[in-house]
From TrEMBL:
One of its GO terms (molecular function) is molybdenum ion binding. This is Formate dehydrogenase-O alpha subunit. Its main location: other. Belongs to the prokaryotic molybdopterin-containing oxidoreductase family. It is an enzyme of class 1 (oxidoreductase). Its cofactor is Mo-bis(molybdopterin guanine dinucleotide); [4Fe-4S] cluster. It comes from the Bacteria. Its EC number is 1.17.1.9. Keywords: 4Fe-4S, Iron, Iron-sulfur, Metal-binding, Molybdenum, Oxidoreductase. Pfam families: Molybdop_Fe4S4. One of its GO terms (biological process) is anaerobic respiration.
Length: 135
């Protein structure tokens, strides 16, 4: 089939007009919702090392508190430190679950000494007494 120059331009113009007409009305609607504030915006970032195993991965812990004298900041997010040479931002499942470990009800917060009978459980004592105790 022989196509002249004029016919070639007609075909190209028709194809361009067809694709333009087909694209009308099919553009996705623009989103009118606002973007939310980043949840770590007003937080305090603390670098630490995970002590769960002997690897020593780097952690970034984010806490939220007003810095008042008698108020404690609460840690609400933990992630791997991307600048740490050991883990480069990745955490194992134990390290990823550190937030749950910190806020656990059964977490020991003071030194304990086990009593003679296992039924009685353990007794909370001070640090000096637990160091001085042989067992």
């Amino acid at each position: 089939m022989q196509v002249s120059r004029r016919q070639f331009f007609k075909i190209c113009a028709g194809g361009m007009a067809g694709t333009t007409a087909a694209a009308l009305g099919f553009a996705p609607a623009t989103a009118l919702a606002e973007t939310r504030q980043y949840k770590l915006l007003r937080t305090r970032e603390t670098r630490n090392t995970c002590t769960y195993c002997s690897v020593g991965c780097g952690l970034l812990m984010y806490s939220l508190g007003d810095g008042a004298k008698n108020a404690k900041a609460s840690i609400f997010h933990i992630e791997g430190d991307p600048d740490h040479p050991v883990n480069r931002g990745a955490l194992c499942p134990k390290g990823a679950g550190l937030v749950d470990f910190i806020h656990s009800e059964s977490r020991l917060k003071f030194p304990n000494i086990a009593r003679q009978a296992p039924i009685n459980g353990s007794k909370s004592v001070g640090t000096k007494r637990s160091i001085a105790s042989p067992s």
